[in-house]
Design brief:
Elements lengths: L2 H5 L2 H7 L27 E8 L11 H7 L3 E7 L5 E6 L13 H18 L4 E6 L3 E8 L4 H10 L9 H11 L5 E6 L5 H13 L3 E8 L1 H5 L6 E4 L6 E4 L1 H25 L3 E6 L4 H14 L2
Parallel strand pairs: 3-4, 3-6, 6-7, 7-10
Antiparallel strand pairs: 1-2, 4-5, 8-9
Helix pairs in contact: 4-5, 6-7, 7-9
């Protein structure tokens, strides 16, 4: 079975074919500031109206609509430019863990395959960055049909050899991307949130549209173990022996705190945050997110 066939299921292609993932870069008062915009020289496309809000530029008001409705509406526009997308995939040892067969990395590759397919189908270039303690692979963005196979081929060959440094890798990505675009992070985020969250904010400061797919294993979110169990850190090798019944309540409380810290900061920075675990049918989870994202634009 080829790499494409293994990770990009026909039923998934059928479901996502009509959806759009592109960063739209719809900004308030886009036309009024077009001469100073990095998109000067590109055409723009009318998107939709929305209600006037305090602080909007007056010259963005659609006076024809006001004349018909006696209400203020603002025109929204989007740039008709190709959107570069970078799939940033964590290939550290913790991503290789899988309680019931499929590892977090394999689950993430399925997500990457579907998203890469969407971008290339829209003729938008997509590239790849893999990392553990540092960036391991960089595949420049292209929109050729065969490019997805190149990306997935690199992912399936990933061999983690070091501990995770998510913050360092994300800051390196922010520094290397010269053109703003769509950055999709696929990771279990098993690092201290206080180090990772500023790096995510760095990407937003660089005006990238950022999506975070936070993938955990089913056993990490449900702690299904019953007997005394030896837990091993896949990156340091250290072990802890514990009774799941004794630690479950404290573990779940800490896990929820961990997830909410990421969710809160992502929401505050207008970063899409999607928390998944490997027991979820990835195509249904992805479709739910895509439909939600579409309604916001």
């Amino acid at each position: 079975m080829s790499t494409i066939e293994q990770y990009l299921k026909p039923e998934v292609i059928k479901r996502i074919a009509g959806l759009d993932l592109k960063a739209r870069f719809i900004v308030q008062g886009f036309i009024s500031g077009l001469h100073a915009s990095p998109y000067h020289g590109f055409s723009v496309e009318f998107s939709e109206h929305r209600k006037y809000e305090l602080g909007d530029e007056l010259n963005t008001i659609d006076w024809n609509v006001y004349g018909r409705t006696d209400r203020f509406f603002v025109k929204k526009y989007r740039a008709e430019t190709n959107t570069q997308c970078h799939l940033v995939v964590d290939v550290s040892p913790s991503m290789g863990y899988g309680y019931k067969g499929m590892t977090k990395l394999e689950y993430g590759i399925c997500i990457a395959a579907a998203l890469g397919f969407m971008m290339i189908r829209q003729q938008d270039p997509v590239g790849l960055v893999t990392f553990d303690e540092r960036i391991r692979t960089y595949v420049p963005p292209k929109c050729k049909r065969g490019h997805l196979a190149v990306i997935l081929g690199q992912l399936t060959k990933a061999y983690p050899s070091a501990q995770t440094n998510i913050a360092g890798a994300l800051n390196d990505v922010a520094g290397m991307l010269r053109r703003r675009g769509l950055v999709i992070l696929i990771s279990d985020l098993l690092a201290e949130p206080q180090s990772v969250l500023p790096a995510l904010s760095h990407l937003r400061f660089r005006q990238h549209d950022v999506i975070v797919f936070h993938i955990l294993d089913e056993s990490e979110v449900k702690l299904p173990f019953e007997d005394m169990t030896s837990f091993q850190d896949p990156e340091t090798g250290s072990r802890v022996v514990a009774d799941p019944h004794s630690v479950r309540k404290a573990y779940m409380a800490r896990l929820n705190e961990f997830i909410e810290s990421y969710r809160t900061v992502c929401n505050d920075n207008k970063i899409d945050y999607v928390q998944l675990d490997t027991s979820m049918p990835f195509d249904k989870a992805l479709m739910s997110f895509l439909m939600m994202r579409r309604t916001r634009f």
